[in-house]
Amino acid sequence: MSCCDLAAAGQLGKTGIMASDCEPALNQAESRNPTLERYLGALREAKNDSEQFAALLLVTKAVKAGDIDAKTRRRIFDAVGFTFPNRLLTTKEAPDGCPDHVLRALGVALLACFCSDPELAAHPQVLNKIPILSTFLTARGDPDDAARRSMIDDTYQCLTAVAGTPRGPRHLIAGGTVSALCQAYLGHGYGFDQALALLVGLLAAAEAQCWKEAEPDLLAVLRGLSEDFQKAEDASKFELCQLLPLFLPPTTVPSECLRDLQAGLARILGSKLSSWQRNPALKLAARLAHACGSNWIPAGSSGSKFLALLVNLACVEVRLELEETGTEVKEDVVTACYALMELGIQECTRCEQSLLKEPQKVQLVSIMKEAIGAVIHYLQQVGPEKQKEPFVFASVRILGAWLAEETSSLRKEVCQLLPFLVRYAKTLYEEAEEANDLSQQVATLAISPTTPGPTWPGDALRLLLPGWCHLTVEDGPREILIKEGAPSLLCKYFLQQWELTSPGHDTSVLPDSVEIGLQTCCHIFLNLVVTAPGLIKRDACFTSLMNTLMTSLPSLVQQQGRLLLAANVATLGLLMARLLSTSPALQGTPASRGFFAAAILFLSQSHVARATPGSDQAVLALSPDYEGIWADLQELWFLGMQAFTGCVPLLPWLAPAALRSRWPQELLQLLGSVSPNSVKPEMVAAYQGVLVELARANRLCREAMRLQAGEETASHYRMAALEQCLSEP
């Protein structure tokens, strides 16, 4: 068979077998096309390559372009099978006078035909050709060669068909297709636009696996796209806005890409645009905000103006969408705007190295306040049937971010919305799996209809905790929260989250948000202990909470790196113990004794005596574990000392237990070993409070203190109350 005959046989893919032509068409029934039946029979009975080539040529002539249907394609496959195309793809010897790629082109054309059948596209004999097909994308050759171009088109059709099968993306990634597609796109040869389209599909289907297998190549594509975006002066820059979010890596974005992306966005958003031009730019900016915070925005005047512009545009868009009645909200755009508003909130509350100047902060807070008002207005309209929609979750998230920093403005509107927020948080808490799914849908919503974005917190309650912490200090909001059952919900939530940190769970893999959420819950409970003590005494959920605190603290104080959480638990437990002192659980039970022993450990290990060069006397200094976090710890420590002092007269067994722990003796020893001038007055007051109550409560404590030079130490530190107590019999 001549080379021309081979080329003609190769046209099988162009006259009905190429995947682009494999649409369901007018079916030529078997009885109406006896010629085709005869040629298919010849194809099945072919004994060698020449006969198969000839039969393929005859089939090509018998089937007009576009007339082939799925049933006929399948019968051609049954006649040809995979053996023949396999040999065509791997042979290295072409007939005399033929280019070496002609046989491969015919083999790919056959595969393209077969792959139009989803079942065949997932066949192992197709999947094991992925590495070979991927090499065709980057093979060198004459760019004007029609046969080579046809082979490249067929190759893309094969790979695209495989990508459309359930497990296809995984096989393509494992077969090196992602790197090949990146190189094909960067080479800008024939079909490079198809390479980009297939890359987009693979990233949408399996982003993490793509980056794991081909990070250097994908970063090269990102650099190219970013540079094109920065230079683009035509409508292509808006198309790139839609593509670029897909190519941002899960790790660090190269700095040169960030510069190009920011410069391109600054030019777009600084121009007068229609919504279809502006919205993709806002989505890209939101994706960058998720990935990099504000690190992609340059410092200085240009950066601050750009950030202010971003937040301003986002707020305007939110108001336009949420304040309009009777129109459908562009949820994906508004969710992206929420992300930009959250970036604005972070920068406005940042004290050091903020991109914004103070006048800009004041202006943006005012603008964001109006946008948050629109969010509240929207949430007030949400009925029960919409509570599980991802956009509602996104709206609650931005409101939670605002309330975490600002509760004085919009107070009336916030109070009116609190009942809804409590019901909403309770609904999602009770359906935790749906809440987690909602968080993923919100992430998707913020970027594009097909692409997953950064992870959002998986429950609504965690989003609201910081704001509720502020609101429980105020009488009006606190009464609403109590009336709506928020304390009971918070107790259940705390106990559930605490289970994640209990023995048997790997706390090293827990996100920081779990521990932060527990700490914030403690702060809310502390507010309630101080402002609503009657609630603590009468609500049974706080008895359960107290039991959990007592059983958990002993192990918690021993855990490295969890001192701040231990401080919260210890202080909250001590304050609650003062209110629940008549509870049977606090009458010297093993759990209560273990809790107070652990609390004493936390309180007693905060300070040590430290030698100073050139001085004979040591000074009182923070322990190494406490020193780095004392700014966050000291208020809890002082409150804990005060609460322990209040527990001593209420729990008769506590003073003897403290004496057995040797805390009063070691405390006096510590004070006697350091210079009184190194002990701040508030520390003296805290120590004296504990020592006085212990001395008053128990004669043996008084005797032990006297043996430890307690009267002399009290005199040195001008602890008049302690000195008087120890002087009494």
From TrEMBL:
GO terms (BP aspect): neuron projection development; regulation of neuronal synaptic plasticity
One Pfam family, short name: Neurochondrin
Stretches assigned to coiled coil: none
Domain of life: Eukaryota
One GO CC term on file: dendrite
Family affiliation: Belongs to the neurochondrin family.
Name of the molecule in the record: Neurochondrin
Gene that produces this protein: NCDN
